[in-house]
Specification:
It is built from six helices and 17 strands. The chain is α+β, with helices and mostly antiparallel strands and 336 residues long. Strand 4 and strand 5 form a beta hairpin.
Length: 336
């Protein structure tokens, strides 16, 4: 698949080569388990500073609390009137009530059982956690769960500047571990096979060849399907800045610099003792085209819901991949 001419086109759409799902070239020879496994091993060895993605920034609000279990730790988060995000244990220190079902008033978290109110300064038996809000995602630092040397801030990927970007965040959860989600993203060869509704003619053009490559990335050429045979061809790179994050960045073609960040947040285990992981995917898209300004104005009503819908459809499939990988690993049947 050829990339678009570097000169601006009136429309970014290109007519893609005709192909059917079963007429594609098999990619199983290129998708070598050793290559995927080595990339995953390098990613898991990178430091996180004990930071975990908690939620989209927009989910942590001043008018109500947000609750989630991360790495088996029950959490509650809220904002004070100055816009600052806070997070702490999800159980009230009085009698253990779920604080996520309480309220937020005047910047304080109020328990619905007996009215105990808490602020970011803590309370006997209730200590807040370090929080980082990068404008797209809210991160929480859990030193006991992370077990690493803590850092002052998480490893936040480089993104297009917010003033010229459209941002959308979608979250799903599956029965697997974070490494299964990361491994899925480090296997770009499955794209056109597993997601023919989204990708056309995906070709991996660069893979890490050394034990400690620099840069440590995979590069693909792919057409993002829009309708029928019409799509937008780009060149993109995949890399892992920390152990629970995979970033896809467009390095050539429409939307240069745009990123899709896939964050894998461990939740805990279900009633059967199977681990559950949240996939929190942030898309930060930008373009120099004049028409993109209109897209930004329509972000809330049209663009953002469409991006979230596409991410949800894709991750319904990819979570099946991640869950299958976990099942085989946990039963000693994983061939990789």
């Amino acid at each position: 698949m050829s990339l678009p001419d570097p000169r601006p086109r009136r429309l970014p759409l290109r007519r893609m080569p005709a192909s059917t799902w079963n007429a594609q070239q098999p990619t199983w020879r290129e998708a070598r388990p050793a290559v995927i496994g080595a990339a995953l091993k390098r990613a898991l060895a990178r430091p996180s500073g004990n930071w975990f993605v908690l939620a989209a920034s927009g989910e942590v609000r001043t008018d109500r609390p947000f609750g989630r279990v991360v790495a088996g730790t029950e959490l509650v988060a809220w904002r004070t009137p100055d816009g600052r995000a806070h997070a702490g244990p999800g159980a009230c220190p009085h009698l253990g009530a779920p604080l996520c079902r309480g309220a937020v008033g005047a910047g304080r978290l109020v328990c619905r059982w007996h009215g105990l109110s808490l602020d970011g300064g803590g309370f006997p038996g209730w200590d807040p956690y370090p929080v980082h809000d990068d404008g797209v995602l809210v991160w929480v630092r859990l030193d006991e769960a992370g077990g690493e040397e803590p850092t002052d801030a998480p490893v936040v990927p480089e993104r297009p500047e917010a003033a010229r970007a459209v941002t959308a965040v979608e979250s799903l959860a599956g029965r697997c571990e974070p490494e299964d989600v990361v491994a899925n993203r480090l296997d770009p060869w499955h794209g056109s096979w597993f997601h023919p509704y989204s990708f056309v003619g995906l070709r991996v053009t660069e893979i890490p060849e050394e034990s400690d490559p620099d840069p440590d990335r995979m590069v693909v050429e792919v057409g993002f399907r829009v309708a029928g045979r019409w799509g937008v061809p780009v060149r993109a790179e995949f890399h892992c800045p920390e152990p629970r994050t995979v970033v896809m960045r467009i390095i050539e073609g429409e939307g240069l610099g745009s990123v899709v960040e896939t964050h894998a947040t461990p939740l805990g285990t279900d009633r059967d003792g199977v681990p559950r992981t949240a996939v929190i995917e942030a898309t930060v898209a930008a373009s120099d085209r004049p028409g993109f300004a209109l897209a930004r104005r329509l972000a809330g009503s049209v663009v953002r819901p469409a991006v979230r819908l596409a991410a949800r459809r894709l991750w319904r499939d990819d979570l099946a991949y991640a869950e299958r990988r976990y099942l085989l690993r946990s039963t000693g049947r994983w061939p990789g």
